[in-house]
Amino acid sequence: MSEVHKSGSHVQVVATMFDVERDTARPRNKAVITSPQDVAGRRVLTGYRPTGRLHLGHLVGNIRNNLALQTESETFFFVADWHALTTAYEDTSELAADVRELVADLMACGLDPDESVIYRQSDVPEVAELFVYLSMITPLGWLERNPTHKEQLRELETRHINTSGNLAYPVLQTADITIVEGEVVPVGEDQLPHLELAREIVRRFNGLYGDGILIEPIALLSVGARVPGTDGRKMSKSYGNAIYLDDDPDSITEKLRKYVTDPLKIRLHDPGRPEVCSIFTMHELFTPPSEVGAVAAECRAGDRGCVACKAEIAVNVVEELAPIRKRKLELIADPGQIGDVLAHGAKCVRPIAAATLDSVRDGIGL
Ligand code: TRP
User: What is the extent of the structural domain holding 353?
Assistant: First the structure.
């Protein structure tokens, strides 16, 4: 791991979240990189849809990595509230509150408006203008083939989401990225098709109107960060199995108590198999690394009961989340502060966005 990373827990987290093998080819031409070392010197950008509170899966799979990036690269983090409208346009009563909640969650975890640009998509109208131009040149077939769109149409039939805005979700995402000349986009695997589309749209745009007007983004793929939820499946809001960053200590302890451990370990002194145990996975993620080996060894030897093991991990998770929860509650209680952060972010982004639009309009001949 490169020494530029912050000391403390983030270093290890980055090492496990990303494939640490160094890419030898020049990453500029690659679609996907997995090594955070290749990020150095590039502008990083990622967006979050405001769809409710963040949970441990977000913290481990995404936010910890982005915290490490924030100290060594130019980082842009934004709330994609227009993207929220691609599915939830019917009831917008909670949207503003969801935006504040998300900003509070992100800042409570350590995304810092003094180190990163933190803004809201809908505060940057330039994004919408670029979206118009990109929509003109994006073939419908590209969007209809998008796996996320196909899956949504299958799964959420009751919601009226077969709209032009939903179909154009990746076009809007491309505008988000290119308007600020985002070069590296940290994403999970589910977002790779969107990033691939973004690259295709950029190539088509530049092919039509001029090389280098828009920058082709590369995905920084986070790998191996699967946090088990209370039912053993991947932690996810939609499965109802999540531990939220602002859960109180009692609910965290109670949720962890419900996790399923090794099904063959029935009695206290039965030997267990950490490799099949969700609670052990949680130890790997939230227990100090120097202690994890002992947890596994005691479990295998039959010297550790599941009840005690769960109580121990609960203490560690509660401890990890305590400062986040405290900070989040303070931020939520002070909406003025969040408003200031977003206003400041918009002020930073809009001149960059306006400059991109200048060259885009130039290229098109407007
Ligand atoms: N589609 C992303 C998600 O659901 C959110 C998003 C919107 C985004 N615009 C973006 C991510 C631009 C990266 C870059 O998680």
Answer: 3-227+334-364
Same domain, 17 and 74: yes
- This prediction's pTM: 0.86
CA distances, 161 to each of 85, 148, 152, 227 (Å):
10, 12, 8, 29
Ligand 1 pocket, 176 CB below 6 A? Answer: yes
Please indicate, yes or no, whether residues 39 and 140 belong to a single structural domain of this protein.
yes
Pocket probe mutation, ligand 1, options 83, 181, 349, max atoms within 8 Å of Cβ: 83
Q: Indicate whether 29 and 166 sit together in one domain.
A: yes
Which amino acid would we find at residue 6?
K
345 and 292 in a common domain: no
CATH code: domain of residue 73: 3.40.50.620
| Residue 139 CB partners (closer than 8 Å, separation 6+) | none
Q: Is the pLDDT of residue 19 over 70?
A: no
Could you give the count of Cα atoms lying within 13 Å of 218 in the half-sphere of its Cβ?
17
pLDDT tens-digit series, residues 61-99? 889 889 989 988 999 999 999 999 998 898 999 999 999
Residues 261, 365: Cα–Cα separation, whole Å: 63
Instruction: Report which protein residue has its CA nearest ligand 1's atom 6.
Output: 47
Longest dimension (CA), the chain: 76
**Cβ 47 under 6 angstroms from ligand 1:** yes
